[in-house]
Amino acid sequence: MEICISNELIHLRNDRISYVMGISDEGFVTHLYFGKRLESLNTVNIYRRFGLPESGKITLSGCQLDPSLNGLLLDRVPQEYPSFGLGDNRQGSLTVMQEDGTTTVDLRYVSAIVTEEKPKLSGLPATFGTNKTLLLTLFDALLQLEVELRYTIFDDCDAIARSAVLRNKGKQRLVITNAMSLSLDMPDANYDLLTLSGAWAREREWVRRPLVFGEQSVSTNYGASGHTTSPFLALLTPGTTETQGEVYAASLVYSGNFYAGVEVDRFRKARVRMGLNKDGFAWQLAGGDTFCTPEAVLVYSAHGLDGMSRQFHCICTNHLVRGQYAKAPRPILLNNWEATYFNFNEEKLLKIAQTAADVGIELFVLDDGWFGHRDNDTSSLGDWTTDLRKLPDGLPALSKKIHAMGLKFGLWFEPEMISPDSDLFRTHPDWCIHIDGRPNVESRHQLVLDLSRPEVCQHMYNAVARMLTDAKIDYVKWDMNRNFTCIGSSYLRRDQQMELPHRYMLGLYSVLERLTHDFPHVLFESCAGGGGRFDMGMLHYMPQTWCSDNTDALCRCEIQYDTSLIFPPFAMGAHVSAVPNHQTGRITPISTRGKVAMSGCFGYELDLNKLSADELEEVRKQIRFVKAHRMILLYGDFHRLLSPWEGKDTAWMAVSPDQKQAIFVLVRSHATAYEMPPLVKLQGLHPAFVYKIQETGECYTGAELMQFGLCCPLPDGDVASVSYVLEAVTEGEDQ
Ligand code: DGJ
C-alpha cells in the first residue's frame, strides 16, 4: 500500500483499490476517484465530467470564471469534506457557528502528511493495525478552525477508514452543529441503495431501492444505533448480485445516534455521507478544544455483495476486535434466560448447569434476575448486589459451584440503566437522563443513567468490576434495553445539553475501555434487547453481540443471513432454544436449530433437563461437532449462497483460509410434495481441489461444486436442514 502526494493529487492505494483527491490552486480539496486500483489518472477527463475548468482551477465564483457554468462552482465540484455556506447547496459535512451566529465554513488545504502509525481517535473505538494513515489538514482562517481529515488504507482489506478531527485554534467559542465522518461524491447516481432496517426480533432486514433525486437516508435518535436500522449503507451498480457488480459501502464505528444517507443532485450525481446524526446535536468547541468524529469504514468490492462482506469481515477480524477472544475459539454456552426467565433459585440453576456440564457445554451464563429484588422487570437495575432470596449463599458461592463442575461462569448486567424502584435511584434521583420539571418517561419500567457524569461512569465501573472480581466471572452479557427520552442532564451546562447523546457514548466507551483492559480474560457479549446495538463500535470492545431476541431457527436464518452483510459469524451470538419457540410459537427440529445456531457463537438457551434422551443425544452430537469445527464456523470465509428472501431455502457456507475444509448449511422453510432436491452452487472452494463430503463419502472437484452445484436432499418435514463437511482429499494444480 502507498500514499503518493504530489502538488495537485493525493493517491492512496493498495494492490486492489485506489482513492484519489485533488488540490486546487485555491486550496479546495476535491474528490476525484474511489474504486478499483488505478495506475495513473488524467484529471482533465474528471474535471470535464463535472463541468469544471479543465485546468482544475476552482474559484468561489465560478460564474465569473466561466459564465456557461451558470451558478456557483462549488455546487458541482466533487469535494472531500464539503462545508456549509460557500455555494455548495447539497447536504454538507460540516456546519460550525461562530459567536456572531453565522454558520459558513471555508476550508482550504494546508498540508498532507503520512504516518506509519495510525493516530488514536481520542475516546472513540476505531480500527487498528499496521497501515498507513494520511493526515490531510484544512483550515478556515476566519474561524481559526483546523480540520484534520484522516484516511487509513489497509494492506489486507479493500477499505479506507476515515474520520475528522476538529481543532479550535482561535479564541472565540465555536458550535459544531454538523460534523460527518465521511463524505463521498460519486460521479453519477446510477446505483441501488442498500440499507438494513427492521425492529426488535426482526433486526437488519435488507432494503434495496434505486436512488432517486433528493435525499434518502437512514438514521437514529434513540441514543443507540438501534433496532430499526444500522449505521451502514451500500451503493450497488445496477444488477449487482452476490458475486457480480461493483459495491461502494460504508459502516460507522459508532453505537449512538447516527446518519447514513445519499443525496442525488440536479446533475444526477450522488453524495454519500455518514456520521453523527446532526438532529439534536450541537457541540461547544471553545478555543483550544478538539472534537473527533467517529470513524467510518469505506469498502469497495468489484465482486458483488459477497466481495463487500469479505472486506467488512476482514476489517472486523483483523483491525477491529481486540483482546484474547479475537481469533480464538468461543466457549459453547448455556444461558438460563429462556429456560427460567426471572423464576429461578440456586437449586434450579445448578441442575441445569450440571446437565450442561455433562453434555460438554463450557460456559454457564446467569441472565437477568440475580440482583436486588428483581422478580420481574419492574425493579432493581442499579442495585448490583446478589438477591439472597434466590441465591442464599451469594454469587461467589454459586460461581464456585459452577466452576467446580468444570464450567466457566458468566453473568448478565444492564449497567447503563436505573430502575425507579432501586436504592440507587432513591439515593441519586438526578443520575438519570431527565429534564427537571418534566415527568420521567419510563420504558420497561426503567430510566437511562446519565453517562455524561464522570461519577456515574465511575460508579458503573465499580459495580461491574466488583462483581467480576468477587464472583470470578468469565463472561459478561452487557444488555441495554431502552431508548432515550427527555434528553437532559442536570450535570451539563445549558449550552451543552445537545452534547448529551454523544457524551453518553464517550462515557460508555471509557468504561468499556477500562473494564476490557482491567479484565482481559473476560469475554464480553454486547446486547440491546437482542441486536439493538449491533455495530462496529461495540464490536471494538465486545467480540460478540447477541444477534436478536428472536431465537426461532427460521427467523434466525433471515436475521443471521442479513447480519452477515457486515459482520462475520464470530460476531453473532446464536442459541438453540426450546420449542414451541417463545417468540413465534413455531416448532422446528432440534437438528435445524443446531445448524442455524452453530453458524454463529454457539450456545443453548433452554432447560436441558426438559429434553428427551434422543434430544439430549442430538445436543451432545452438536457440541462435539462445534468443538471440532468452530474455527472454520467462526473465522472461515463466510459465503451466502441462497437468500431466505428469494425462496424457501437459505444456504451459506464457511471455508477455511487454505480452502481445504468447508462447512455447508441449508435450511428449507417448508416442505413441498413432488419436488426435486435443491441444487446449490458453492463458493470459495479451490476449483482444482477434490473435496470429499464427509456425510456421504462422495467426491467432487471444487469447480464442479461451484459451477454445477451440489444437490442437497433434505429430510421430510418443515424447517428441515442439511449440513455437510467438505475436506480436500487431493490438491490439484494451481489454476
Ligand atoms: C433482553 C435480552 O436481549 C435478553 O436476551 C435477556 O437478557 C433480557 N433482556 C433480560 O432482561
Write the layout of secondary structure elements.
Elements: E1 2-5, E2 9-13, E3 17-23, E4 29-36, H1 43-49, H2 62-65, E5 94-97, E6 108-115, E7 132-140, E8 145-153, E9 159-168, E10 174-185, E11 192-197, E12 205-210, E13 214-219, E14 232-236, E15 247-253, E16 258-264, E17 270-276, E18 283-285, E19 290-292, E20 295-301, H3 304-319, E21 333-335, H4 337-340, H5 346-359, E22 363-366, H6 395-404, E23 408-413, E24 417-418, H7 423-427, E25 447-448, H8 454-470, E26 475-478, H9 500-518, E27 523-526, H10 536-541, E28 544-546, H11 553-563, E29 572-577, H12 590-597, E30 601-605, H13 613-635, E31 637-642, E32 649-655, E33 661-668, E34 679-680, E35 690-693, E36 699-701, H14 702-707, E37 710-711, E38 720-730
Parallel strand pairs: 21-22, 21-30, 22-23, 23-26, 26-27, 27-28, 28-29, 29-30
Antiparallel strand pairs: 1-2, 2-3, 3-4, 5-10, 6-7, 7-8, 8-9, 9-19, 9-20, 10-17, 10-18, 11-12, 11-14, 13-16, 14-15, 15-20, 16-17, 24-25, 31-32, 32-33, 33-38, 34-37, 35-36, 35-38
The structure holds (2R,3S,4R,5S)-2-(hydroxymethyl)piperidine-3,4,5-triol.
Residues 337, 367-368, 412, 479, 481, 527, 529-530, 546, 549 line the site of (2R,3S,4R,5S)-2-(hydroxymethyl)piperidine-3,4,5-triol.
Q: Top keywords for this entry?
A:
alpha+beta; 735 residues; binds (2R,3S,4R,5S)-2-(hydroxymethyl)piperidine-3,4,5-triol; ten-stranded antiparallel beta sheet; globular; 14 helices
